[in-house]
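Sequence in, structure out.
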Amino acid sequence: MSDCIFCKIANKEIPTDLIYEDENVAAFNDLNPQAPVHFLVIPKKHYASLNEIDSSEVLGNIFSAVPKITKKLGIKEYRTVINTGESAGQTVFHIHVHVMAGRKFNWPAG
């Protein structure tokens, strides 16, 4: 999708310090962090939300990257979040997983 900021990051059209990249996903720090550690993991292929995922492989690629990154960063406890839809808090319509750490999180999430 030509106007998607995350597609532009994945395609390296926007310079970004990636903290992880492989052939399927990219990860980078969130510009509006909600925890001392807060990064996003995105598929390189565009999907607007979780509702568009057509294969378990896509989520498998995303979630197999998460422990690789957290191990690299020395993080053992973290929260992962996927917001799906505007009322759920999704602001960029390219599926992404938030990974947050470095503080205590409350439940239920707000």
